[in-house]
Amino acid sequence: MNDRIGFLPISDFKYMPEISRDYEIKAHWALYCDNYLEGFHIPFVHKALNEVISYPEYETILFDHCNLQIGYSKNSAEVFNFPDNHIDFGKSVAAYYFWIFPNMMFNFYPWGISINIVKPISIEKTKISYLSYVWDESKLEGRAELDKVELEDEEVVENVQSGIRSLYYTTGRFSPTMEKGVHHFHTLVSEFMG
77-118: per-residue pLDDT in tens? Predict the structure, then answer.
């Protein structure tokens, strides 16, 4: 994580309770993580996000107990201003999405960070806490889209929860390009469950 965002003045980020949110969804917590870790749905579910993120360049990098998804911008607006020695210098990165096993997400944007904590309530209910810390308020306009994306994701996840109860539901294979993160998550869950 430090290789990507170590240049940011994290100690200057300010917690903003007025833009932080809790959401409750009618779905299993692992389905929410699946959705977060899978990139297939972006062009179909998140039309506004797809306008800014370059879907063909979307990248997932796996580590032992976490992964990083990189959202590259289609234009140079709202991207990180990297120092010359940065690993992604010269690239138009709009967001870094770090997932830490089993249930934490650290989403870095040019305006700051959204920390998402996925909290199981029951087998079919989950609470998601979005904690927003702002560094550059002048770029905070992009923060408004997070609520829209979250509600779109919730609808998908709740529909998947309904769908997996169907008698016609069967599992399929993982996409080697767009579901690396999901496969990684399932492997870790299986490993930790013994």
Answer: 789 999 999 999 999 999 999 999 999 999 999 999 999 999
Which residue range is the domain that position 45 belongs to? 2-193
CA 115 and chain centroid, separation: 10
Structural domain count, the chain: 1
CATH of the domain at 38: 3.90.380.10
Distance in angstroms (rounded) separating the CA atoms of residues 194 and 118: 22
Cα separation, 96 vs 169, in Å, equals 33
pTM confidence score: 0.91
**HSE, side-chain direction, 13 A CA sphere, residue 79:** 20
Q: Count of CB atoms within 10 A of residue 43's CB?
A: 14
List, for residues 44-90, the tens digit of each pLDDT value: 777 777 778 888 888 999 999 999 999 999 876 789 999 999 999 99
Longest alpha-carbon distance in the chain: 55
Q: Which two tokens stand for residue 193?
A: 């469950």
For residue 102, whether the previous peptide bond is cis, meaning omega lies within 30 degrees of 0, is yes
Q: How far apart are alpha carbons 42 and 179 in whole angstroms?
A: 12
